[in-house]
Amino acid sequence: MGWYKAVNKAVKGKFYTKRDANTKTSTSTPTSQAAASDTTSPSSPPAPPTPSAARFAVSSTDAAHYEMKDNTVIVVFGASGDLAKKKILPALFGLFRQGYLPTDVQIVGYARTKMEKAEFHSRAVSYIKNPDKDAAISAYDDGSAFKALNDHLLSIEAKYTSKERNRMFYFALPPNVFVPVAKNIKEHCYAETGVNRIIVEKPLGRDLGSARELINSLMQYWSEEETYRIDHYLGKEMVKNILVLRFANVAMGTMWDKNSISNVQITFKEPFGTEGRGGYFDSFGIIRDVLQNHLLQVLSVLTMERPVSFSAEDIRDEKYPPITQEDTLLGQYVGADGKPGYLEDDTVPQGSVCPTFAATTLWIHNPRWEGVPFILKAGKALNEGKVEVRIQFKDVTQGIFKDITRNELIIRIQPSEAIYMKMNTKTPGLQTSAMATEMDLTYNRRFADAKIPEAYEALILDALQGDHSNFVRNDELDVAWKIFTPILHWIDGSRPKPLSYAYGSRGPAELNAFVERYGYHRSPSAYEWPVTNLGAQ
Ligand SMILES: NC(=O)C1=CN([C@@H]2O[C@H](COP(=O)(O)OP(=O)(O)OC[C@H]3O[C@@H](n4cnc5c(N)ncnc54)[C@H](OP(=O)(O)O)[C@@H]3O)[C@@H](O)[C@H]2O)C=CC1
Ligand SMILES: O=C1O[C@H](COP(=O)(O)O)[C@@H](O)[C@H](O)[C@H]1O
């Protein structure tokens, strides 16, 4: 699964085309007249990444790859919610500011919550780093509301000079309304003379059965090519970089297998607990929240084969057996240092055994990866915020250097993007001894002026351009659920008591022994990262 993503992009050799920065954009409500206002770019937009000789614009009339440019409306469902506020609206605004949004794009917010425009405006701009003066507002099973939405869209589109009407619908919604919304849009808001797309957020199901049911229900109304299933980790710069690192560097390619690699850890750590979001979280748990989607997607990019073709069969060539109980460690945080434990969160059901921390080890049965453990770990309320891939190489097996520190390649996804390789080098001086050090590519030092795009910016732009390569395909989702469904059913059914860990710690005390079981050797404390280097982080 998964390999076609960024490779597809590389094969197409595509470069994004920046739009005119003086484009007008506005956001509006279906019920009131569009609150349109000129929003020229707040400041001079940075130079676009458009190598002129290689510029490639999608011009196919084939709807699957059609680039939505002129005559495009983006409708954000769930516009009053957290996701829209924190991620989607800022990403849209970020794209606009940089000149990437289609000419004359209109953004329409749709929500159940009744809200004054002013209130919505303040919510919408609260997470926009460089707010400007426009915003938007607006029952998910109420066909007449969707007719009203369609009327509103038609009023926006009335000014188009051609018949082309492109509509993008973003589902920033709880999954229980995905199907009615998909149905209502198709029945009442589908543009007959243009391209229509939906972007759907996780969670897509609770297990294999419910995911298939949901996908099939959605597919009654929307085809695979019209559907963009988002996993925002696939839009993160360092996740996208993994394929370049692997396939554009011969040196990396040769060491990317069981012959050189001992074990791999993919780690997600958040330094805060559920803090009021326990209601939602408790019904899912950390495995559904992070491992089954985000970390598994990182794993797939890390381990996929070079593409042979983009067919589903090639994806299924990889063999991922389901995770077992023996390969799983579950934790739940308890209060420490004044910070509340998970069970002290008022929104969490009493006595919940929901895991807030999980480490699971996956195995891939193919010639490249046979025998290499892939440890996925994720937790809330830990000692730091960090997402990284840590590839630990095997020991030097012979000669005078056989007892020294192992090489490790670390891809830090966030914060402070970096790739560093822990290496052994001769200790500078007259003596001949080896010491651990690093080869270091810290992004904000090496690419000081580069703007790293937000994941949602990158993915919304892909969707507008008809590029599915960084979205989750139907069959891929199926594989992801097959891997995790048995362990999730065991957790849901047997309710095993998770191990406790203190808020602010690295996780359950048993974690170190768990990762050691799979061959991980922690570097000896002799390795020290010079504090002066931290300035650049
Ligand atoms: N370019 C850069 O920015 C670079 C930064 N550095 C910095 O140098 C420091 C050291 O780097 P590095 O060795 O990669 O990272 P760490 O020492 O932070 O972590 C290394 C690994 O050891 C585990 N670990 C941490 N503490 C313990 C413990 N007490 N017992 C057992 N295992 C433990 C970690 O697990 P877990 O994650 O689960 O806690 C992680 O898998 C870090 O702060 C890093 O950010 C180093 C090189 C380059
Ligand atoms: O999908 C989710 O991801 C976030 C973490 O996203 P990030 O981009 O900040 O790394 C996580 O907090 C949330 O629980 C989960 O649902």
Automatic annotation (TrEMBL):
Give the pathway listed in the UniProt entry for this protein: Carbohydrate degradation; pentose phosphate pathway; D-ribulose 5-phosphate from D-glucose 6-phosphate (oxidative stage): step 1/3
Which reaction equation describes what this protein catalyses? D-glucose 6-phosphate + NADP(+) = 6-phospho-D-glucono-1,5-lactone + NADPH + H(+)
Q: What's in the keyword line of the UniProt record?
A: Carbohydrate metabolism, Glucose metabolism, NADP, Oxidoreductase
- Pfam families in the record: G6PD_C (PF02781), G6PD_N (PF00479)
Q: Which GO terms describe its cellular component?
A: cytosol
Biased-composition ranges, Low complexity, are 23-42
Which part of the chain is the Glucose-6-phosphate dehydrogenase C-terminal domain?
243-520
Q: Which Gene Ontology BP annotations are present?
A: glucose metabolic process; pentose-phosphate shunt, oxidative branch
Recorded GO MF terms: glucose-6-phosphate dehydrogenase activity; NADP binding
| Key word Cell membrane present | no
Instruction: Please list the residue ranges annotated as the Glucose-6-phosphate dehydrogenase NAD-binding domain.
Output: 75-241
The EC number of this protein is 1.1.1.49
Region of interest: Disordered: 18-54
Q: SUPFAM superfamilies, alphabetically?
A: Glyceraldehyde-3-phosphate dehydrogenase-like, C-terminal domain, NAD(P)-binding Rossmann-fold domains
Q: What class of enzyme is it?
A: oxidoreductase
Give the family from UniProt.
Answer: Belongs to the glucose-6-phosphate dehydrogenase family.
Q: What does this protein do?
A: Catalyzes the rate-limiting step of the oxidative pentose-phosphate pathway, which represents a route for the dissimilation of carbohydrates besides glycolysis.
Q: What is this protein called?
A: Glucose-6-phosphate 1-dehydrogenase
Species in which this protein is naturally found: Mycena sanguinolenta
